[in-house]
Amino acid sequence: MHNKHTPQRPDGFAKYRARHYRGARHTLLLLPPAKRRALRRNLVFIGLTLAVLLLIALLSKAHAAGGAYVVDDGAINAPGTCNVDAWFSANRHDGSSHTETLSPACTFSALPSVQWGAALSRAGGESQISPQLKAQVLSREDLGLEMAVAAGAHVALDRRHAFDGADLNLPLTWQPLQALRLNLNAGWTHAYDDGEQNHRLTWGSGFEYQLAPALTLIGERYGQRGGDQAWQAGPRLHLGEFVDVDLVVGRSLSGDRDQWLTTGATVRF
What is the CATH number of the domain that holds 92? Predict the structure, then answer.
């Protein structure tokens, strides 16, 4: 969830780089127009997001978790701190199908065990806001265990029938090693699907393995009983103490088995 630019240096590889660049440009021109537009939107979105988040990070002084993954962990922000997540997902085979999300969350010093948040997303020409609440019920550093209760609601901003559903989740995190965190989720969701009300149990499992101080590998699988299932995985880059960047690939395990690419960033302050 990168748009890095490194000035070229005058060395013996300049001509090779020029030929390689021209070839890459022609290759990109061979992509269908919808995919080219989707790629440009991904790069522009992440470039602008990183610029804003890096600017905020210069004023930041705290640490917490964040990201665009579906499987939650049992931790919350430290009291008096916040995080802001932003991500952009595009369908691999349909560049015009994409989702944009902005999700802030804070834990206030007056209520140190509760994290308040919201997610504002837009997909398919419709916008949705989802207020969220997450309360930590267990934190045992000696055992490497953290557990929370999370709840959220989904409200459409562009329709007369605004209420889209709600969900409840119990995330549990176990850290058996300093570099490894395992996450398990169990919950319930209530959703309106084309006017039909559906109630389903939800589940998820995932891991986070820190390969280096600046790199963590993340993978997850999640789904609903009798409903959709999917997996996501990718690297998370840590740019200093306060900014993370995610590059995530995902695939549905049901229906048309859609595939998608997500680019995102998190800042903590």
Answer: 2.40.160.40
